[in-house]
Amino acid sequence: MGGEEGIEEVLDVCQHLNFERLREMNKSGVRTSAEKETEKTLEKIKNMWDRGECCDITIRAETGESYQAHRLVLAAGGDYFRALLCGGLRESREDVVWLRGVPGWVIESILHFFYTGRLWLDWGRIWELTAALLQFQLEGALSLCTDFLRERMDEGSCADKVSAEESFRAVPLVLLSRLLQKDSLRVESEMEVFRAVVTWVEDQPEDRLPSLPDLLRHVRTPLLSRSELQEALRCPLLYRSPGARAAVEALKSLAKGSYRGPECGPRTPNQVLALVGGDTVDDDFMKRVPSRTVWSAQRFHSGPGLIRTIEWKCVTNIPEPARFRHCVCLLNNKLYLLGGRKYYGSLDVLKSALRFDVLKKKWEELPDMLRQRDYFSAVCLGGRIYVLGGSWDYSQCLNEVESYSPEENSWRLDHPLETAVCGHAAAVLEGQIYISGGCDSHHHCLPTMCGYDPVGVASPGPP
Description:
alpha+beta, Potassium Channel Kv1.1, Chain A, Serine Threonine Protein Phosphatase 5, Tetratricopeptide repeat, four-stranded antiparallel beta sheet, 16 helices, 20 strands, 34% helix, globular
């Protein structure tokens, strides 16, 4: 059926079935298509979003901005949001979902893309937006970014890197201060940040020297190596600014190992996911074997939903013996490896401790812990490493707590836990140690959480 003959037959059927409205529409000659109807529907959904109609979820940015949207549109927009909102996670039952670490303008750009298929792109935002699109696995939007870069990157635009020093000297103070505070600032070493501050001030010393103390507060000096600390202390500019005296004293205390100031973490791009030791299955899948290998995650490959395939690289090997059921923690850019087991016998529990300098890639033996332990937990607080509980054979749990001071290079016994526990978790929140779960000596699982004060006693209750 087609053409005029087809239309006549449709009109006859409409008249026979008393579908007068449909008959009039066919007589009027109105024509449409699936593509046009789809465009109309999408335009109506976009208009509803603009007016805030029928929105059933709010996306909140790290900086506090809120954006209304439709769950269905978000879930259809990408695998990440579909897994977040439809995969049984906590967010699937909440009306407000926080996207931590994502600025408001990025969320607004992603939502605009979902509803219109378009992105706002310019050189000022392309890199940060591209990183976010990679995180959220939005391949369609990411292709727009790569097209933008491919079309606009040439010898002229790439010359920005060559002339970076000249353009950097012209950066306004407010922008420089904001950049130095960012976790996402990409530097090989924090010393690059210190040198950048010095370079910027020295370009116009009379006008910029008063700003030096405030800028130095954004340099994460506890991350500097010993040689970098010495280089910073030799900088003449520090001694020309009376306000920089506090920074000089902090550098001196760090160089002497007597620093008691606030701790700080590495900038986000320099954070590394590492696997240290453990036990693995042999090549014949016949038995488990303790491992000495330290692996680091080199690259994350996208998979369906929130799944990632990780590309690993061998960094180094643990000095003998291999170990598992140990604890690992990071303090002042040094990796600490504590206790654990060297094999599966009752006498194979270790109390030895090692430290790995991640910059020099060298291991150092430390004094033994006061007690052998495995299945324990370790946290860093106030410049010390605390090891809590654990077991020293298959039947005895420990309530003992001891801590290590890098400055004194020694262990001390601290207040014990109220309950002997092993296989538990521990974390630090707002200067307080919290312990949760685990098992007691009778192999009963514990549903409790308590706070632990190194100079006081454990107190029950969550934070």
